């Protein structure tokens, strides 16, 4: 079987991915190679007698400038066209072109043709071009460029077969390929001079192409040719061209290519629709209208929230039972507790199961969120969002493209920093991208909401709505503030990029494309995040489990257990079923049976489920079932009563043991050792432990607090009430705690994606410790000031809120230097 | 003949112009060239953003937005 390696190149928004999906079909195998900021995607599939390897290169406008995407694409072409390398060299470049934007797309085509590898031009979105009244003569283009041209429509699945045919045909005739040449007229002399200088070069690439790239001052190529040529020699040619013609080589080449593209455009395209308003024009008149633009933007953001967070959350009602049954299944096969001695392995697996399903629970939300992003990207709304808001963001060192990440992170109540940080990928401005990555975690994530609800319910019952308003609107101010802070300090020297952004025509997205992309992103989330989160869960478990209870305490609890067991024994001594439960083992067994039934009965929602459950438990142990449902059996009723009492007593012992274990655990001790610092914010060790454990997943904060403050009396008090009564906190304490939670702590999943996106552990560590430091400082300040002026919780929160808003507004007027490229009017 | 330089950012909605010179170099120059801001190419101002800053232009038959700070480096003739 013959192997063909195809490189898929094209400008952004040309529909490259739809072509990739179109030809590679379902039975493709995709490998992702994450790069610094851009991924290289490779698909393997079979076509007739060929094994095709298709490399989807990042979208690039050109092969001459220095963006990350262009570097990756160029490096790929240089490295993988090398016949001496171990990798199979690239056979064909497929250049996808947006037919309705022919002129600019041909600009890249000229550069690809010069490389010297056979090129196939794909006129994609041909249907859209036709609808716009463009008549394109593809045969003529093919003749003028002397390369095959195929018409396709990726979204309508047209032209895939023809393209594959052309690829195999071209592959067979590869050896006959003749190098494409543009006559650069006055520059030719200089090109040939450089070519001569390159005679001794061992590079496998076309000498002419190298010469042209060198005249363009391309650093990658200069590095590639190495010692074969001196930079001064190139500079000399560039200089002499400048003196002779008063033109810069760079501008000259670009202009020449555009002029050539213009020639082809005029020869091969007939525009029947000049100056007729397109649908895109009509939509933009409304969407980008000075008055309507912002309300529409807000509405779309609201819609994204409503659909992903609200409806996605409802969807988890359906997926949750699946996760819950998985959990139940695992718990069922674990060793049972022997009265109060719970085997560590049981504890461990329950802990791990809880940690993982807490994260898996979000998958429906993520999937919808990713799908909506993909749709907005495909439609073409994303760059318009940036267009509308850039002015505000620019003031804070961010970029118009920061809008979406911040929105996803939770600009209103409840987002998630993971997709937020992941969506920073497209931001072209390096400094703004870093600032966005580092500020998204300050947004209100979905998992923080239960924590707020708990505290608001406990301490701010009457002012709940006002407090929630403070919490949900302050995040965006904090994010802007921190972005400004970072971009004027640690990120000061980072490169910024000019805001030069295409506003592509609106497109209807394809279902397949949207589905594939959101599925891939969810899969990355599952693979990367869940594995590492679970590793952290193991560490946390160990930190909570060890060193464990002291010998004395174990004895104390054992004694207590004995008392309860003896009580139980006495109660049922004369019972006719006594011999069924006269050993400790039997009692434990019955107790586990009873507790398990209660738990499952509680989870069963319908009568049908309950019946099924009864049947199942009757089958497991008919005798015990009699105690469960004694009906008119007096003796059994007595046992039922006794076992109920015993179950309550056992739970009490277990809870006390757990609390003591947490308090004495490594994590508990860490929480205690942090008290000297956190006391200024009014935090005691319990809050510290809750925050420490929330590092694994923010949900843990509520769970930990809940278990610490759980009432020891077995009544039905809610966690809020228990906390309000037992903690000894005042609303001012609560305000300080809330402020800390707003600023921090970042969860481990977010930190992983920060690492992924910045490609640096240094920034990950910064992203962990900076918010913690800031959070402690801010809540200490609020708490101390609140104490001095004896403010109430709400007053302290309001003071904090208005201080932040005020500082943010002031900073907006502090100019931010965004131009760090040279030039301007000084250099004329 | 108008001898004063006209910069792109001073044009208003609907105005058309031709590029005369780009008064910058390095990364921004290359980016602009790649996007079609080459000598003599025709530009039409489509609109300003709702908050007045980036502006939308039509060049080489497609739409692009650039900040006014960048547009102020592009010299045009009307």
Automatic annotation (TrEMBL), chain A:
Domain FeoB-type G: 3-173
PROSITE patterns according to UniProt: G_FEOB
Molecular function in Gene Ontology: ferrous iron transmembrane transporter activity; GTP binding; metal ion binding
Binding residues for Mg(2+): 21, 24-25
Binding site for GTP 3: 56-59
Binding annotation for GTP 1: 10-17, 124-127
Topology term for the membrane: Multi-pass membrane protein
Keyword Hydrolase assigned: no
Key words of the record: Cell inner membrane, Cell membrane, Coiled coil, GTP-binding, Ion transport, Iron, Iron transport, Magnesium, Membrane, Metal-binding, Nucleotide-binding, Transmembrane, Transmembrane helix, Transport
An annotated GO cellular component: plasma membrane
Top-level taxon of origin: Bacteria
Binding site for GTP 2: 35-39
Main location: membrane
Compartments it resides in: Cell inner membrane
Spans traversing the lipid bilayer: 291-312, 349-375, 403-422, 434-460, 466-486, 522-544, 732-754, 766-790, 796-814
Coiled-coil intervals: 177-204, 636-663
Family: Belongs to the TRAFAC class TrmE-Era-EngA-EngB-Septin-like GTPase superfamily. FeoB GTPase (TC 9.A.8) family.
NCBIfam families: feoB, small_GTP
Role, per record: Probable transporter of a GTP-driven Fe(2+) uptake system.
Protein name listed in UniProt: Ferrous iron transport protein B
Organism of origin: Malaciobacter marinus
Taxonomic lineage of the native organism: Bacteria, Pseudomonadati, Campylobacterota, Epsilonproteobacteria, Campylobacterales
From TrEMBL, chain B:
Key word Cell membrane present: no
Gene Ontology terms, MF aspect: transition metal ion binding
SUPFAM superfamilies in the record: C-terminal domain of transcriptional repressors (SSF50037)
Highest taxon of source: Bacteria
Name used for this protein in its record: Ferrous iron transport protein A
Gene3D superfamilies: 2.30.30.90
Keywords linked to the UniProt accession: Iron
Domain Ferrous iron transporter FeoA-like, first and last residues per copy: 6-78
A Pfam short name: FeoA
Gene: feoA1
């Amino acid at each position: 079987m013959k192997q063909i390696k195809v490189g898929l190149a094209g400008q952004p928004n040309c529909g490259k991915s739809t072509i990739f999906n179109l030809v590679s079909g379902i039975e493709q195998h995709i490998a992702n190679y994450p790069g610094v900021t851009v991924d290289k995607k490779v698909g393997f599939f079979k076509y007739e007698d060929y094994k095709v390897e298709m490399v989807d290169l990042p979208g690039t406008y050109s092969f001459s400038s220095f963006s990350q995407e262009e570097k990756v694409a160029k490096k790929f072409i240089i490295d993988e066209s090398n016949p001496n390398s171990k990798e199979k060299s690239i056979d064909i470049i497929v250049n996808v072109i947006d037919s309705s934007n022919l002129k600019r797309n041909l600009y890249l085509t000229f550069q690809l043709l010069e490389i010297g590898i056979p090129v196939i031009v794909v006129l994609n979105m041909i249907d859209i071009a036709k609808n716009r009244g463009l008549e394109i003569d593809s045969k003529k283009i093919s003749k003028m460029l002397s390369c095959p041209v195929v018409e396709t429509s990726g979204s309508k699945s047209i032209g895939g077969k023809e393209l594959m045919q052309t690829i195999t045909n071209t592959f067979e005739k590869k050896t006959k390929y003749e190098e494409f040449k543009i006559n650069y007229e006055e520059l030719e002399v200089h090109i040939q001079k450089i070519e001569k200088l390159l005679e001794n070069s061992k590079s496998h690439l076309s000498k002419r192409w190298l010469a042209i790239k060198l005249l363009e001052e391309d650093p990658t190529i200069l590095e590639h040719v190495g010692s074969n040529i001196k930079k001064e020699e190139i500079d000399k040619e560039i200089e002499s061209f400048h003196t002779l013609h008063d033109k810069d080589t760079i501008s000259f080449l670009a202009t020449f290519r555009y002029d050539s593209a213009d020639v082809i455009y005029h020869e091969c395209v007939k525009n029947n629709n000049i100056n007729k308003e397109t649908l895109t024009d009509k939509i933009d008149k409304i969407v980008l209208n000075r008055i309507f633009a912002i309300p529409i933007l807000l509405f779309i953001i609201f819609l994204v929230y409503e659909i992903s967070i609200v409806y996605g959350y409802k969807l988890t009602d359906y997926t949750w039972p699946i996760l819950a049954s998985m959990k139940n299944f695992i718990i069922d096969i674990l060793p049972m507790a022997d009265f109060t001695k719970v085997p560590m392995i049981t504890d461990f697996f329950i802990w791990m199961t809880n940690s993982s399903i807490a994260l898996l629970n979000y998958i429906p939300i993520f999937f919808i969120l990713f799908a909506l992003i993909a749709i907005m990207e495909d439609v073409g709304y994303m760059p318009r969002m940036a267009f509308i808001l850039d002015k505000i963001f620019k003031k804070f060192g961010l970029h118009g493209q920061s809008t979406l990440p911040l929105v996803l992170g939770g600009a209103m109540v409840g987002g998630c920093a993971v997709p937020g940080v992941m969506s920073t990928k497209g931001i072209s401005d390096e400094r703004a991208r870093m600032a966005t990555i580092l500020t998204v975690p300050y947004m209100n994530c979905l998992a923080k909401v239960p924590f707020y609800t708990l505290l608001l319910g406990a301490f701010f019952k009457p002012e709940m709505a006002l407090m929630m308003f403070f919490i949900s609107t302050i995040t965006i101010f904090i994010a802007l503030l921190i972005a400004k802070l970072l971009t004027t300090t640690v990120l000061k020297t980072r490169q910024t990029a000019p805001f030069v952004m295409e506003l592509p025509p609106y497109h209807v997205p394809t279902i397949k494309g949207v589905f594939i992309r959101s599925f891939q992103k969810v899969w990355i989330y599952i693979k990367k995040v869940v594995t590492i989160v679970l590793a952290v869960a193991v560490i946390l478990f160990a930190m909570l489990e060890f060193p464990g209870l002291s010998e004395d305490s174990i004895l104390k609890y054992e004694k207590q257990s004995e008392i309860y067991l003896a009580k139980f024994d006495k109660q049922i001594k004369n019972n006719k079923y006594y011999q069924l439960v006269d050993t400790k083992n039997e009692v434990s067994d019955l107790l586990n049976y009873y507790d398990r039934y209660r738990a499952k009965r509680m989870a069963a929602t319908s009568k049908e489920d309950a019946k099924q459950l009864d049947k199942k438990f009757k089958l497991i142990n008919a005798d015990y079932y009699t105690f469960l449902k004694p009906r008119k059996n007096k003796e059994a009723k007595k046992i039922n009563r006794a076992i109920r009492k015993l179950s309550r007593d056992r739970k009490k012992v277990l809870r006390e043991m757990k609390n003591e274990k947490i308090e004495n655990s490594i994590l508990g001790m860490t929480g205690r050792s942090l008290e000297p610092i956190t006391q200024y914010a009014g935090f005691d060790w319990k809050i510290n432990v809750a925050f420490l454990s929330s590092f694994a997943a923010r949900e843990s904060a509520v769970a930990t607090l809940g278990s610490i403050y759980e009432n020891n009396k077995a009544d039905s008090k809610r966690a809020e009430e228990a906390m309000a009564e037992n903690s000894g906190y005042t609303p001012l304490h609560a305000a300080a705690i809330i402020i800390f939670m707003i600023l921090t702590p970042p969860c481990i999943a977010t930190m992983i994606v920060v690492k992924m996106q910045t490609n640096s552990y240094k920034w990950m560590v910064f992203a962990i410790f900076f918010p913690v430091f800031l959070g402690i400082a801010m809540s200490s300040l609020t708490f101390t000031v609140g104490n001095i002026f004896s403010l109430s919780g709400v007053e302290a929160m309001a003071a904090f809120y208005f201080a932040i808003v005020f500082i943010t507004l002031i900073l907006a007027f502090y100019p931010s230097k965004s131009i760090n490229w040279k030039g301007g009017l000084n250099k004329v | 003949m108008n001898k004063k330089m006209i910069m792109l950012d001073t044009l208003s909605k609907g105005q058309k112009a031709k590029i005369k010179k780009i008064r910058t170099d390095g990364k921004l120059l290359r980016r602009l060239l790649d996007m079609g801001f080459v000598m003599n190419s025709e530009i039409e101002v489509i609109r300003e953003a709702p908050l007045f800053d980036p502006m939308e232009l039509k060049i080489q038959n497609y739409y692009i937005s650039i900040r006014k700070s960048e547009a102020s480096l592009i010299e045009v003739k009307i």
